[in-house]
From TrEMBL:
It is found in: Cytoplasm. It holds the Pfam family tRNA-synt_1b. Its EC number is 6.1.1.2. Belongs to the class-I aminoacyl-tRNA synthetase family. It comes from Limnobacter parvus. It catalyses: tRNA(Trp) + L-tryptophan + ATP = L-tryptophyl-tRNA(Trp) + AMP + diphosphate + H(+). The gene is trpS. Homodimer. This is Tryptophan--tRNA ligase. Catalyzes the attachment of tryptophan to tRNA(Trp). One of its GO terms (molecular function) is tryptophan-tRNA ligase activity. L-tryptophan binds at D138. A motif ('KMSKS' region) lies at residues 210-214. ATP binds at R11, P12, T13, G19, H20, G150, E151, D152, K210, M211, S212, K213, S214. Its main location: cytoplasm.
């Protein structure tokens, strides 16, 4: 009844790095060729954790959009927009909050997790408790059929489905009938989305931990070739390789994890044999990684430079995206208001 639509958002809280590329953006680039896609800057979501430092958000919004475009997200294929520029998200969030049981929000696993993880921030706020509901509103307002998520986000999609179901149960009066005229349900006003499970990013950081801004182990999407080379050359290796003649074990080395992402079988074999026999040195072993990362990021740096030099173009892309998104959101809200008895015309 509703067309296929994929929705995904990203919080603008820092420079994007290879972890974002391998974990999210590569998938967006693929999805935009398969479905109508909406990708949004989740600035209101960023405020739930950065309400004391809103300047972080402002600084990062445009850079993040440029990083998306640099990574190959195509505004001709996907709709790119900023959440707060479509205020209907807030209206739907408010209306959904009227009938969402508090316990549904309190039991979202990431609620307590994040509060514990970000213990330096006071997240005992109304906004933070409600952020999964805002996420639901983000999805439901576009009647998105699919939402790409990692395993840990599946409960959020489940919550969104429950919220849609509850809303339809309360407000949909139109019966759906089968061929024989028997009622088989109510015509949905809001659509229950499906989780489009995406594999968690295996992108290791420069220290072997997951690549993340908070671990300071990242390679930014716009890293210069000099920095790429310098950062990879400084990577720690198997501590057993004190001297060049000491053999090592790739299993104990973060550089090997990068070979797993970037190298072909021949190179991997060369690393395994060369490391275990001390036939190669660590700097030598890092060279193919430096080359692979530099080659991967070169076209992105080029595209990013093109957009950085042309901020008016980036703003136009977002403006057009916001208009398109707003038209879809307005459509849904008309329906929602009508069914909730809020159309007074
Ligand atoms: S040779 Fe390569 S895999 Fe072995 S310790 Fe050095 S960098 Fe790591």
């Amino acid at each position: 009844m509703f067309p296929e639509r994929v929705l995904s958002g990203m919080r603008p809280t820092g420079l994007l790095h290879l972890g974002h590329y391998h974990g999210v953006l590569k998938n967006w680039v693929k999805l935009q060729n398969e479905f109508p896609c909406l990708f949004f800057v989740a600035d209101w979501h960023a405020l739930t954790t950065h309400y004391e430092t809103p300047e972080v958000i402002k600084e990062n919004v445009w850079d993040m959009v440029i990083d998306w475009l640099a990574a190959g997200v195509d505004p001709e294929k996907a709709t790119l927009f900023i959440q707060s520029k479509v205020p209907e998200h807030a209206e739907l969030h408010l209306l959904l909050s009227m009938n969402t049981p508090l316990s549904w929000l309190e039991r979202v696993p990431t609620y307590k997790d994040q509060q514990e993880k970000l213990s330096d921030k006071d997240l005992g706020t109304y906004g933070f408790l409600g952020y999964p509901l805002l996420q639901s509103a983000d999805i439901l307002i576009y009647r998105a059929t699919q939402v790409p998520v990692g395993e840990d986000q599946v409960p959020h999609i489940e919550l969104t489905r429950e919220i849609a179901r509850r809303f339809n149960h309360f407000y949909s009066k139109e019966k759906l009938l089968d061929a024989k005229g028997a009622e088989i349900g109510r015509k949905p006003i809001l659509l229950e989305p499906k989780a489009l499970l995406t594999e968690a990013s295996k992108m290791p950081g420069l220290d072997g931990m997951k690549m993340s801004k908070s671990y300071q182990n990242t390679l930014a999407l716009r890293e210069t070739p000099e920095n790429i080379s310098q950062k990879i050359r400084k990577m720690p290796t198997d501590p057993a390789r004190v001297r060049r003649t000491d053999p090592g074990d790739p299993a104990k080395c973060p550089v090997w994890q990068l070979h797993e992402v970037y190298s072909d079988d021949n190179t991997k074999q060369w690393v395994q044999e060369g490391c275990k026999s001390a036939g190669i040195g660590c700097i030598q072993c890092k060279e193919p990684i430096i080359q692979a990362v530099t080659a991967e990021l070169a076209p992105m740096r080029e595209r990013a430079a093109m957009y950085t030099e042309n901020p008016a173009l980036v703003r136009k892309i977002i403006e057009e995206g916001c208009d398109r998104a707003r038209a879809m959101a307005t459509d849904t809200m008309k329906d929602v208001r009508k069914h909730m008895g809020l159309d007074y015309s």
